[in-house]
Amino acid sequence: MDLTKRLPAALRPGGKHGLASTETRDPIGYAVAALNKLAQSDLIDRVGLRKPVEQAVFTSTRNGFKTATAAGRTFKKVGSAGKPGVRVPSAQPKGLFDLTPTEDEQMLVDVVGEFAEESVRPAASEANETCETPEAVLKASLEIGLPILGVPESLGGISEERSAMAGVLVAEALGKGDMGIAVAALAPGAVATALGLWGTEAQQQTYLPAFTGDEVPAAALALTEPAVLFDVLNPATTAVKNSEGYVLNGLKSGVVRGADAELFVVGASLDGQPVLFLVESSTPGLQVEADPSMGIRAASLTTLTLTDVQIPADAVLGATDGTSYAECVRLSRLAWCALAVGTGQAVLDYVTPYVKEREAFGEPIAHRQSVAFMVANIAIELQAMRLLTYKAAGRASTGKDYTRDVALARKQCADKGMQIGLDGVQLLGGHGFVKEHPVERWYRDLRAVGIMEGSVLV
Questions:
Q1: For 379-431, what is each residue's pLDDT tens digit?
Q2: DSSP type of residue 265
Q3: CB of 165 within 8 A of CB of 394?
Q4: Cα–Cα distance between 298 and 300 in angstroms, integer?
Q5: pLDDT digits (tens, 9 = 90+) for 20-71
Q6: Which of 6, 120, 358, 452 is most buried by its number of CB atoms within 10 A?
């Protein structure tokens, strides 16, 4: 597929203000060109505006809701169910331990970072209060191509080779703006990425065109369950095979934008193995209920109840031996690590000038050794989080076993990320406890890293 045909004329090779006709660029490069065009438009200004104060507060923050899932669109079944889908090849290893982003990856980060700073950050406070990401921000996230980052180029996406690193960099940049909004914006792309990684030809041809078109559906992964000491690799939700396919029963929590989602990827136990299933929101037996949480409130978290949900036999996504499910969990944990790094960087960037300007006893509090050491520790632990996350992403991109690497990254990001949030609040003193400063929100968001399992993928 020629991606240049998907670009405005001004951005095509040889076009005005576009790439030189002799210059070659991979699909991410073309996407970056499109993102640059967006950054130069007035869309950024439009999405940066707050919603009117008189807008009704999201229902779940006051009375809650409990309703059937969104009717959604009708996904027309096409393709061969028994034929493997398109797979993006792994990136070629360089043979060097080099975590430096490529030129195109850095350009992608710069554009997404600008979007996060100018559009996501200003909307974060209100989104936290209403438990809902502004529609304008979500629309802008679709226009910059977030849902198709992990979709193969031949299926309308921009992935020519597997790039978990690009996904990590994007998640980190968005997390620096606001973790809750980042999760809400990345959720549809997580489902699209899952379809690109494990979907059959029929599944990809049935669902992916919606994610690569103009009207991208809300979609969500549903792996987490509200259980004490919950083990994500041993879900209590069950799938029982029958003559018509499978029947699902169970309860899922932490489902992003569940009230709006048109497609779910649900994790359930089938014959003792964790398996992924595609469930359309119009399927009878589904019910969503608002479940606003302590952190990442802008993600509009819900619970999803499945009661005798009948799905067809071809709704299985990936292998039934648990390998696809385990891979999904690892990639989700990697995404959460990236979000933690971005939010931790936001904390560091905020407290550093604060301690230099805030005075006590006639001098900046940064002159106090205890304060200086605390800021330094934030920087040290943050860099360790970043390096572990990047290494795991690099191994995932090249098809190497990264089980150990992502486990180390998650442990570091869950523990030290929460500590960074706590230290940020502590450094601001009384100011850290009030909503006038965003650090208290970042602290609440960072606590989600060790709890949330399947909401976003890279």
A1: 999 999 999 999 999 999 888 999 999 999 999 999 999 999 999 999 998 88
A2: E
A3: yes
A4: 5
A5: 333 444 545 545 554 554 445 555 455 444 333 334 333 444 346 677 777 7
A6: 120
319: Cβ contacts below 8 Å, ≥ 6 apart: 198, 275
The DSSP result for 301-361, as a single string, is EEEEEEEEEEE-GGGEES-SSSHHHHHHHHHHHHHHHHHHHHHHHHHHHHHHHHHHH-EET
Q: Angle at CA 394, nearest 5°, toward 96 and 398? A: 85
250 pLDDT more than 50: yes
Q: What is the pLDDT of residue 59?
A: 40
The one-letter code for the residue type at 211 is: F
- Cα–Cα distance between 285 and 310 in angstroms, integer? 8
Burial label, 292 (beta-carbon count in 10 A; 0-12, 13-18, 19+): middle
Sign (positive or negative) of CA dihedral 448, 451, 455, 457? positive
CB atoms near residue 385 (< 10 Å): 26
201 phi, psi to nearest 5 deg: -60, -45
Q: What's the confidence (pLDDT) of residue 434?
A: 83
Burial class (CB in 10 A: 0-12, 13-18, 19+), 434: exposed
What is the rounded average pLDDT for all residues in the chain? 84
Using DSSP's 3-state secondary structure scheme, residue 388 falls into helix
What is the rounded distance in angstroms from the CA atom of residue 337 to the CA atom of residue 351? Answer: 21
DSSP assignment of 115-126: HIIIIIHHHHHH
Nearest by Cα to 183 from 289, 45, 339: 339
Q: What distances in angstroms separate CA 362 from CA 26, 48, 369, one per listed residue?
A: 56, 38, 15
DSSP 416-445: HHHHHHHHHHHHTGGGGGSTTSTHHHHHHH
Diameter of the chain by CA atoms? 78
CA dist 355 and 174 (Å) reads: 25
Q: What is the rounded CA–CA span in Å between residue 99 and residue 323?
A: 27
Exposed/middle/buried for 349, CB within 10 Å: 0-12, 13-18, 19+? exposed
At 198, the amino acid letter reads W
CB atoms within 10 A of CB 450: 17
What is the DSSP code (8-state) at residue 9?
G
How is residue 11 annotated by DSSP? G
